[in-house]
Amino acid sequence: MNAAFSTLAEIRFGYGLSPMVAAPRSVDAMLARLAGPDVIATRFPIEGFRTRAAQERALGILRKARRTGGASAQTAFRKANRRATRDLIRDFGTSLIRPMLSPDGFRERLLRFWADHFTVAASGKGLRYVTTGYIEDAIRPYMTGNFATLLKSASLHPAMLIYLDQVQSIGPNSRIGKRLHRGLNENLAREMLELHTMGVNGAYTQKDVRQLAKLLTGLYYNFRTGFKYRAAAAEPGVKTVLGHEYGGLRGQLSDIHAFLDDLAMHPDTAQNIAHKLAVHFIADKPDPGMVQAISRAYLESGGALMECYRAMLEHPAAWQGFGSKAKQPFDYMVSTLRALGVEEAAVAKMPTRRLRQVFATPMQIMGQPWLRPGGPNGWPEQLDAWITPQAVAARIEWALMISAMYGKGNDPRDLARVALAELADPRLVAVLGAAESRAEGVALFLSAPEFNRR
Q1: Same domain (yes/no): 343, 250
Q2: pLDDT tens-digit readout, 381-420
Q3: Is 438 contained in some domain?
């Protein structure tokens, strides 16, 4: 069955159809919304990295003090930790509300795409409470600009430096390296090439990784002093990466910026970004012509991301093959809330403990703990990674709970027509009408393959 533009625009490129939000009717309309002001982020703010980092620093001080400070120090730490945890769960709730209500679903999907592309996991190393701030500051403002700007913002952000252990990397021949007998950590250099830009099959070697690791020395951050470039920790001398020379007798941050500008415009970077966009939004094995069209738009525009999005959306393959991608658990939950027409207050006023019970814990059981992928390569894209017996059972269980909360007043047949529009199979609608109760019919629809795919 052929789908209308607005139907696929919301299901494939957004978070699903909603009775409360008008769907875009053209590619130009989608891009105009994306290019316009970020209204939903202004309406529902999330604290930035600086605020969350100050909170983490204060927690660190209290954590250290409780070891020798007695009962009062223990109480102070527990109180501050509860407050930070409450703030984190509230950020999670806001992250649900934004796409739930937004008329710009494409922006919200791009946020999750780029946050995954530049993964920082919110676990360990003091990152639990600051990762939402990293996404808010380093990713969200730069998704519609130039890739080189986004690359520098994310790859050199303090959260990334901590996550990939760059703060431990010191030039062996630097003044600090000689004094402390410390050396390189190659994590950031490797992921910068393999994940952030050129891809696993990119034309780089281990020697390039090593040289880049030397170039990146000097980057440093801790929660007490903040970010600074430590020239005394930078490996001296020229570094040759991908055939080009950077640096000199004394390391400088500008050398790293110059390299990232060049790296952003490498043909392998264009190809990798194009392929990842097509895989995320269209199919696990995307149309090669589409990938080439996006890659060409990237290179011809100097890495302008809006031109890449236009090339993807204007390609015929963007509107074919419905159902080839699975909604990841976060997407599935948001699309459910949109389909049911759940209002802001239902989530915004939900106690934090209830937010965990209704959303965070079930999402983890479905296989996607909030902001905690297993590694820097982020979440898997393949359909069969998400549609497993255990994950499907978890979705069914959650569907039963959410339909009891929000679905009793919904005719499941009408829900199918709202959420799938002309893609609602008459046979599915008939089965929903035969359910013993409306709530059971709603749960049955939310568990249906048609609703769990895009």
Answers
A1: no
A2: 999 999 999 999 999 999 999 999 998 889 999 999 999 9
A3: yes
Name which of 171, 139, 165 is nearest 152 in CA terms: 139
Closest CA to 247 of 216, 268, 270, 219: 216
Q: How far apart are CA 335 and CA 18, in angstroms?
A: 8
Dihedral sign of CA atoms 416, 422, 424, 425 in order:
positive
Residue 347 lies in a domain: yes
Quote the CA–CA distance of 79 and 87 in Å, as a whole number: 12
Within a domain: 14: no
Task: Determine the Cα–Cα distance for residues 284 and 382; give it in Å rounded to an integer.
Answer: 6
360 located within any domain = yes
- Both 246 and 337 in one domain: the answer is no
CA distance 126 to 64: 13
SS (H, E, C) 153-185: HHHCCHHHHHHCCHHHCCCCCCHHHHHHCCCCC
357-379 residues labelled b (16+ CB within 10 A) or e (exposed): ebbbebbebbbbbbbebeebebb
3-class state of residue 404 by DSSP: helix
User: Residues 437, 363: one domain?
Assistant: yes
Return d(Cα 95, Cα 222) in angstroms, integer. 27
- Calpha distance 365→358 (Å, rounded): 12
Q: 341 and 439 share a domain? A: yes
- State the residue range of the domain holding 336: 329-452
Taking the complete model, does pTM exceed 0.90, yes or no? Answer: yes
Structural Rg of the chain based on CA atoms? 24
Nearest to 290 by CA among 250, 260, 320, 255: 320
Q: 208, 243, 264: which is the final residue of a domain?
A: 264
- Provide the sign of the torsion angle of the four alpha carbons 207, 209, 212, 214, taken in this order: negative
Q: Which of 226, 247, 264 is the last residue of a domain?
A: 264
Q: Give yes or no: residues 339 and 224 share one domain.
A: no
- Into how many domains does the chain fold? 2
Look at the alpha carbons of 224, 225, 229, 232 in this order and tell me if their dihedral is positive or negative: negative
pLDDT digit string, tens, across residues 152-209:
999 999 999 999 999 999 999 999 999 999 899 999 999 999 999 999 999 999 999 9
